[in-house]
Design goal:
The complex is a heterodimer of chains A (324) and B (645). Chain A is α+β, with helices and mostly antiparallel strands and 324 residues long. Chain A has helices at residues 2-10, 139-143, 146-171, 211-218, 268-272, 274-283, 300-312, 316-321; strands spanning 50-51, 62-76, 79-94, 97-98, 106-115, 131-135, 176-180, 195-200, 224-225, 229-233, 238-246, 259-264. The chains are: A alpha+beta (324), B alpha/beta (645).
Chain lengths: 324, 645
């Protein structure tokens, strides 16, 4: 201990990690290139951390999340066939109580994902039990072997679930929605964005490459947000506004512990309310979603929907019945 | 029908044939004892299962209390924007299923609150409630109370019988409930249904205060509205018991009065208390109770049997050849006979015995008998004649209350042993006089304790509990500690009632078939609630009952304070007036009587033993009159002393 203490005194950025208190996911995976490009800041926003004004109440009225339960169910000529239960739900909160989603605000079902490398894939349909989805595997992917084919299939499953969420997002109009995940594909087919805010818990895409940005964002303290920057994602390169927000102090854990990235619609009216939106998110930290291992980033209403979706999934025993 | 939840069966806690779990919203009016109905379709047929809630759990998705603390940063006043979802999970025990076969696991169906008809079907009362039902309380919330019926033949016999009631003393549980049940029974038997020709009567022992001494009088305060509604729901008239006959022992210090707190002119005028006393024939049968079982060895017991057979119940015998034939009707006569036999033994040469009896044994028995007259002086008849409720045939629809409140523990034992024994004999000889006689015995743990040996009383109670139901004798036993009552007697009771019970008693193994929640409810059960176990109910059921529609003992004692220590003539006046005698004629008749104590006591005894409708003036007329004294007359001198000659 004395050894690390000595090192820390001369290196303020050094953090000794408390073992067992974090996940591998929290460890930084961003580019080590200090000259890499940072996303552009929006308006007058600057990268430095800013304290979010405290709020006792949250203005979010609706919450949305998706869930999936995937099992490799068969192999055929080297290709893996997946059975997945995919679902998404949008729930309203009234008088501090989460209401069970109405049938209109639930999407879900059992899908069989059959890679297109299997020629007679159309024979795998089982009406009344699952919907057979053909996963398009491009020739170049197929040429890279079955590992790649499987990656493509898994990605297709994720996209299918995203598609269910998008369907619900497109239906949402009134209220203030907090959704788990990005706002990619949230852009309405016509008109303005509804009041929708996305929370990104995983940091597979990290928007701080320069030394300056990295120090500003990783140095955020509890209840502080970064400046708002612009993010372009998805195949259409739709842009959204985004900022980092620290929900929980990292202390002796990796810097991304307790850190979320928030996405808001790229419109001025939302930019003007960014502090208010951040304060609502901070108010949602109670109750905690413990003992979920992602409790540092998972807000309780989102956790609630996850539990709801999980309750509608077939059990493990039920999934194994489909192998019959 | 309103859906309130769904049956759930998890791998860890699956539904079984006799128990199932279901969830319900917190706002549903469900609790321990609630009856629910499950409806499901299995295959192509409908299945209905009725159950009673025996356990309740409530939880949310919180895994550790620490998580909740951390959520609000230790601020108890904090109000997070989202409330954790709360759920109630109930465990229910199966009451009935339709169809009855196959007895499979409870299906994962919808759960409904039971309505009136559901309760009757669940408890299987729908088939007998009309004809053989005896209401034992109501089930359900105040706005939807359903009367619950016991089957007459399973409560009073002959199918099964006897009631055992457990409850903490002093919480208006045992006596109040049994009085309510008696009210229900009498209402039923007065209806003249088949098999009720000779009706039912009850014999109660008043052991504490005035609990049972004013049950023929209106309550001091009108019963609360909700209690009157309960009576209406049960179809019972909320009036005091119509026919009650009270008995009490004589006061040992003053035989003109009775040893009872129920002695007040107003009570005596309306419904007097009558004396009871045991003749020699009664007490000699219960000698072991009188002298203590340990004190009665085989030789003494043999000598007592000899005395009973020869002098008390037999035709008598001559103590010395050619002497007069001796018989004994009183304790005094019997002790005289023993003295004569001892004298004869002393005079005889040889063995020094009287027959086969050793003088030491005879002296021991003599000693004990001499003590009895002092120990139980108010209970043992002076003239050897038995008085009390069992002298005459019992009358249907009547409650006989024997007041032993003023007696000490030994005397109570004697009274109890004697009555129980007489009842057993009458039961076997089928001389009860009614179809059913209910005997209420409180403090069963004292009279028939578990592992308490083979006393005379416990033997008699065991006998009644085993065979009484066939012979018209039904035992309503009550106690505070059921675990300490003879298991055979408890086991022979088909119907059980449980009022408020202390936690220590509930920890005994005998209550292990209740779930912790049911035990918890029993430990906090309010007055007026009782848990009923009955052969027709697959599971025990909580019911509510109203206050007894009669005067409370404490009110009676306050309003009618006992007036004791009256003279023999005052006692005669009271008795004659109670028998309907004209006040002026009674006063004249008593004024004419002499002051001889023996004669006045004889008249009092005769009045008390007189047949109903007897003329008290005629009986008083047989008394010894005052000695005639001539009127003083003025003496008139023939000559005037003031006259001057």
């Amino acid at each position: 201990m004395a050894f690390w203490k000595g090192l820390k005194e001369s290196r303020p950025g050094l953090k000794v990690l408390r073992q067992g208190s974090f996940k591998e996911d929290d460890l930084p995976r961003f580019s080590s290139d200090p000259n890499a490009e940072d996303p552009p800041m929006v308006g007058d926003e600057t990268p430095e951390g800013k304290p979010v004004p405290p709020a006792l109440e949250s203005g979010f009225t609706h919450f949305m999340d998706g869930a999936q339960k995937v099992r490799a169910i068969a192999e055929y000529e080297g290709a893996t066939i997946y059975l997945a239960h995919l679902s998404a739900a949008l729930a309203k909160r009234e008088e501090r109580t989460m209401l069970t989603p109405s049938p209109d605000w639930y999407r879900g079902g059992l899908f069989l994902f059959v890679p297109s490398v299997i020629e007679d894939r159309h024979e795998f349909g089982r009406p009344g039990t699952w919907v057979s989805e053909s996963v398009v595997v491009r020739d170049e992917d197929a040429a890279r072997g079955f590992e790649r084919v499987r990656e493509v299939t898994v990605k297709a499953i994720d996209e299918h679930r995203n598609g269910l969420e998008t369907q619900l997002l497109q239906l949402f109009r009134d209220g203030a929605l907090l959704t788990d995940g990005t706002l990619v594909n949230a852009k309405p087919r016509s008109g303005d964005y509804p009041f929708v805010v996305g929370i990104v818990k995983s940091h597979s895409h990290q928007y701080f490459n320069s030394h300056e940005r990295r120090r500003a964002i990783l140095g955020l303290r509890t209840g502080e947000r970064s400046g708002v920057f612009e993010v372009a994602r998805g195949k259409d390169r739709d842009t959204v506004y985004s900022f980092y927000l620290r929900l929980v102090e990292a202390d002796d854990r990796p810097a991304l512990f307790g850190m979320i990235r928030v996405e808001i619609p790229p419109e001025r009216k939302y930019l003007d309310r960014v502090d208010e939106i951040a304060s609502w998110i901070l108010a949602e930290r109670a109750p905690t979603s413990r003992p979920d291992p992602r409790h540092d980033k998972l807000l309780y209403p989102i956790h609630w929907i996850e539990e709801y979706l999980r309750s509608r999934q077939p059990t493990d025993a039920g999934m194994s019945l489909y192998t019959a | 029908m309103r859906e309130i939840g769904r049956v759930i069966g998890t791998e860890r806690k699956p539904s079984t044939a006799y128990t199932f779990q279901f969830w319900a919203r917190p706002e549903e009016n469900l609790g321990i004892g609630s009856i629910v109905k499950v409806a499901a379709t299995v295959g192509d047929h409908d299945v209905t299962v009725y159950g009673v809630v025996v356990e309740a759990q409530g939880f949310n998705d919180l895994e550790s209390p620490l998580h909740e603390y951390l959520s609000v940063g230790g601020d108890a006043g904090a109000e997070p924007p989202t409330l954790r979802h709360e759920i109630r999970v109930f465990q229910a025990a199966v009451l009935r299923r339709e169809p009855e076969e196959p007895v499979g696991a409870v299906p994962l169906g919808r759960v409904y609150a039971a309505e009136d008809d559901d309760v009757r079907i669940a408890l299987r009362t729908e088939k007998y409630a009309e004809e053989y039902g005896i209401v034992c309380g109501v089930y359900g919330p105040k706005d939807a109370q359903v009367p619950v019926h016991l089957h007459r033949d399973f409560l009073l016999g002959p199918e099964s019988g006897h009631l055992n009631m457990t409850g903490t003393s002093g919480l208006a549980a045992k006596t109040s409930y049994i009085l309510f049940l008696l009210k229900a029974i009498f209402e039923h038997y007065e209806s003249g249904k088949p098999g009720d020709q000779n009706g039912v009567a009850a014999l109660l022992f008043n052991t504490k205060g005035g609990d049972l001494l004013y049950i023929d009088r209106e309550p001091k305060e009108t019963l609360p509205k909700e209690h009157l509604e309960l009576y209406e729901r049960c179809g019972i008239d909320p009036t005091p018991f119509k026919k009650v006959v009270y008995f009490a022992p004589y006061d040992a210090r003053n035989w003109t009065t009775l040893d009872s707190i129920r002695q007040h002119p107003e009570l005596e005028k309306d419904n007097p208390t009558w004396p009871f006393a045991f003749g020699l024939e009664n007490i000699i049968d219960h000698f072991e109770v009188l002298v203590g079982r340990d004190d009665l060895d085989a030789k003494a017991s043999g000598y007592i049997t000899y005395l009973r057979d020869e002098y008390v119940q037999g035709k008598g015998r001559a103590i010395e050849p050619g002497g007069p034939v001796e018989t004994a009707k009183t304790l005094g006569e019997l002790t005289t006979i023993i003295r004569k036999e001892l004298q004869r033994a002393d005079e005889s040469s040889g063995t020094g015995k009287f027959g086969v009896h050793h003088p030491l044994t005879m002296r021991k028995v003599l000693n004990r008998l001499q003590n009895l007259e002092h120990r139980y002086s108010g209970l043992i008849s002076r003239d050897g004649v038995t008085e009390g409720p069992l002298v005459k045939p019992l009358e249907p629809g009547t409650i006989y209350v024997v007041d032993v409140n003023e007696l000490d523990s030994d005397a109570k034992d004697l009274v109890f042993a004697s009555f129980v024994s007489q009842l057993k004999d009458k039961m076997e000889q089928r001389q009860l006089g009614v179809d059913r006689l209910i005997v209420m015995v409180d403090e069963m743990n004292k009279y028939a304790p578990t592992g308490g040996g083979d006393s005379h009383v416990s033997r008699a109670l065991r006998e009644i509990s085993a065979r009484g139901r066939y012979m018209g004798l039904t035992l309503f036993g009550a106690q505070q500690f059921r675990s300490r009552v003879d298991k055979e007697i408890v086991g022979n009771a088909a119907t059980h009632a449980f009022g408020h019970i202390e936690a220590e008693e509930l920890a005994q193994p005998g209550y292990s078939y209740f779930t912790p929640a049911v035990k918890e409810k029993l430990a906090t059960l309010p007055t007026g609630d009782v848990l009923i176990k009955h052969p027709h109910f697959a599971q025990p059921i909580f019911v509510r009952f109203p206050l007894p529609p009669c005067m409370k003992g404490s009110d009676g004692m306050r309003d009618f304070p006992a007036q004791r220590g009256v003279s023999a003539k005052e006692a005669l006046t009271k008795q004659a007036l109670a028998m309907g005698g004209n006040a002026n004629r009674v006063a004249d008749a008593i004024e004419s009587l002499g002051e001889g104590e023996t004669d006045l006591m004889r008249l009092l005894t005769e009045l008390r033993r007189a047949a109903p409708g007897a003329d008290p003036i005629a009986i008083l007329g047989t008394g010894k009159k005052k000695a005639f004294r001539a009127e003083p007359r003025p003496t008139i001198e023939e000559s005037d002393p003031f006259e001057k000659e």
